[in-house]
Amino acid sequence: GTALGDPIEFDALAQALATSLSQALSQPITIDRALPASGRFRLALQLQDGRPLTIEVSPAGLGPAVWLWAALAGQCAVLALGCWLAVRRATQPLAQLAAAARALIPGRRDESPWVTGGTSEVADAGAAFDEMRQRIDAHLEERVEMLGAMSHDLQTPITRMRLRADLLHDDALRDKLNADLDQMQHLVETGLAYARTRQAVDEPVVLTDLPALLESVVSDFQDAGRSVRWLGGPDMAVRTRPRALQRVVVNLVDNAVKFAGHAEVALHRQQGEVVIRVLDRGPGIPAQHLDNVMRPFYRVDNSRSRETGGTGLGLAIVQRLLVHCQGSLVLLPRDGPGLEARVHLTDVPAP
Question: What 3-state DSSP class applies to 223?
Answer without folding.
Answer: helix
